[in-house]
Design goal:
4 helices; about 130 residues; mainly alpha; about 0% strand
Length: about 130
């Protein structure tokens, strides 16, 4: 293995470890937000904005886990799996849809996000079909 291959491998491992640290920190943040949201008066209730923020954090952790899986696959066989990248992109767009403020969002942006979801879904379907 040449020096660039070794450097690439070590950089990918460092990135995987750093991503793991970020995912753990984000999961701890979710737990903290849920516990503090339930403890604060009136108790056992999260308002709509807190729920949306919590779901956004959940999806961020899921995106991190998917990126970690993609990096692990890259380390094992040195290829980038397009279907995993499409799934990460779909999850990221889904997160955007969940946290999107429909009152202040322009209709053209909503149309663009919808078209992006259709394009990513179509690409994923075509990749899985082959």
């Amino acid at each position: 293995m040449d020096i660039f291959g070794k450097a690439e491998k070590y950089i990918a491992i460092v990135l995987l470890v750093l991503m793991g640290i970020v995912v753990i920190a984000a999961a701890a943040e979710i737990a903290f937000e849920i516990v503090t949201g339930l403890i604060q008066p009136p108790g056992f209730f999260l308002d709509v904005t807190e729920l949306i923020d919590t779901f956004g954090l959940f999806l961020m952790v899921l995106i991190g886990l998917e990126l970690m899986a993609t990096m692990r696959m890259y380390l094992s066989d040195h290829t980038i799996h397009v279907e995993m990248m499409l799934l990460v992109a779909l999850t990221a767009v889904t997160r955007k849809v969940v946290i999107l403020d429909t009152v202040e969002t322009e209709p053209l942006l909503v149309f663009g996000v919808g078209f992006l979801i259709l394009a990513l879904s179509g690409g994923y379907f075509l990749i899985q079909k082959k």
